[in-house]
Amino acid sequence: MDNQFYAVLDAASSRPVAFYASDAHGGPQGEEGSLVPAEAVPITELQWQEMLHHPSHCQFIDGEVVITEPVQDAPPPPRNAFDEIDALILRIEALEARNGV
Fold first, then answer.
1. Half-sphere CA count of 34, side-chain side, radius 13 A
2. Which one-letter DSSP state was computed for residue 88?
3. How many CA atoms lie within 13 A of 24 on its CB side?
4. Residue 47 near residue 65, CB atoms below 8 Å
5. Cβ(21)–Cβ(3) below 8 Å
6. How far apart are CA 17 and CA 56, in angstroms?
7. What is the pLDDT of residue 62?
8. How are beta strands 58-61 and 64-67 bridged, if at all?
């Protein structure tokens, strides 16, 4: 029998959280001695490789691997020009105080 691959998916995001293979986990899902959990879905070897290659930005939707854009951290908010001016004034005053001006 050919090796069957499986994925356990996060219920909210459809992202893979675990993988199983019948040859490494005691046989096909549902057979006695198999360690493949009931909630695991069968996938092809190619789908398994795709998901391994893109673990943080892939989903398994309607039997297909969907590669999504990686989530980027939001850029910091732009600094207020007045805040920058205030910070410069404080630095100038500190330098003046240190130099006795």
1. 18
2. H
3. 5
4. yes
5. yes
6. 10
7. 93
8. antiparallel
Which residue type occupies 1?
M
Rounded Cα–Cα distance for residues 65 and 3 (Å): 19
DSSP state of 4: -
Domain ranges (residues) in the chain: 5-67
Report the amino acid identity of residue 72. Answer: Q
Among 32-41, 46-55, 65-74, 84-93, name the one with the lowest average pLDDT: 65-74
pLDDT, tens digit, 9 for 90 and up, residues 18-43: 998 988 888 777 778 888 888 999 99
Amino acid present at 74 = A
Residue carrying structure tokens 């500190």: 94
